[in-house]
Amino acid sequence: MITGAESALVVNNNAAAVLLALDTLARGKEAIISRSQLVEIGGSFRMPDVMARSGALLVEVGTTNKTYLTDYSNAITERTGLLLKVHQSNFKIVGFTETVGLKDLVSLGKERNIPVVYDLGSGALIDPERFGLPHEPTVQESIKAGVDIVTFSTDKLLGGPQGGIIAGKKKWVDLLKKNPLTRALRVGKLTIAALEATLRLYLDEELAVKKNPVLAMMFAPLEIIEERCKKLISKITPEAKALMNISTVEGLSEMGGGSLPGEGIPTKRISLLPERINADELATRLRGNTPPIFARIEQDRVLLDMRTVYDNEVDTIAVALENICSS
Ligand SMILES: *Cc1c(COP(=O)(O)O)cnc(C)c1O
To answer: Whose CA is nearest to atom 15 of ligand 1?
Structure first.
């Protein structure tokens, strides 16, 4: 209902989703992929290795920077099992580039009667562009483009528990469900409960943006973050203020552990420049606090990105600083 897909299946993570799709549709057959999309996600998820594991024969087309639709169509044979597109979710190729859009790939797949699988990875259900951030392809957009199967993580931009969703045409999803691997890759009750709660919020996007911690942090307006900075500064005791130089500074929030490469989001940070101890020592003491407070260090200043601090945690930080300064 949220994605607009005919059918869907939940597995352990997106790696499992990709493996299952390849194993079902391209085992012993060829899977065509652009050379620019043979990505490594990390944690030893490397597209060529996953393809090898699934028994799909990798057919690379195009070049690192340019791939055309004709590269795909020329590579199609009677052994072709699927056309695979992988979202370059953790790196960027810029400059003299050419990629084939999903719609064009879908048209080619339809014409030649070959399923198109899109490994979207990040799993955005709300385009960050709506909040002034860079565009990220959404699941709904992929379904609308007519893709046969799209796979994505439920713990990246979706903001849910670890999991992977396979969504798309019923005909193909049903085929995946029948694969014996599906039982090995299926999720437990706890994941289903958490994922259901996460997805229910998306029925009302405004609610999702307010209540989902990932979305709330990612889409928090700068004014709210600045307000939080002011609140923290006003709560720090004069004794602590006498021992460190405290100010609000601009900065960039790094999003998504690599899911949005090079797309820092402007933020406001609290800069702490202690006088008696160095920044490393202050950061260590903050981590030793109960609860631990993790900060960044830049140019011998301790920085707290207030985007990732809840309003009800501001007091905790003020108290921690007071304790550190009085010890
Ligand atoms: C993150 C990602 C994966 C792996 O997903 P997990 O849910 O971490 O297993 C696979 N492909 C792409 C494109 C990704 O971004």
So the answer is: 121
